[in-house]
Amino acid sequence: MSDPAAVVVAPVQSFWRRKILGPVLAQLRQGITPEKIALTAALGAVIAVFPILGSTTVLCGLVAWGLRLNQPIIQLVNYLCYPLQFVLLLPFYRAGEWFGAPHVTLSIPEMMARFQAGPMEFIAEFGLVALGGVAAWIVAAPLAIVALYFGLRPALRRLARRSRVAVV
Q: Which of 15, 17, 33, 162 is the most exposed place for a label (fewest CB within 10 A)?
């Protein structure tokens, strides 16, 4: 008869291991190459900072579907990088001025006042600002994708080697 006081407690895994490393290891064990995961993560991270709020989930889904990439990984990276979209929104909009977008004050009270004064003018003006931000993102995105891909690939290759050793 076993001792009722002896309780087996499973080790608590960290959020990192449970939600990020675990799914990546599972994909590697199922045969997805480190290169494909690196490309998926790089695209997910770069699309996550696309300067139009509310569009990144759909964009990641379309890119993953079109390139036959892993949907869960691209969306995981997208969600993890989502805070960066807010950080980079203003820099992309300001960089968009180099492409002809108008310079506007982006303070919330002033934007609300402009919207109340004329919703259609507001949409037209800030639509141009958003297009300028998209132009700046289009210029920066390929460089960021290449840097992230080549930065992630060696680490994922090491992880793949270690996971094969652990499985065998």
A: 15
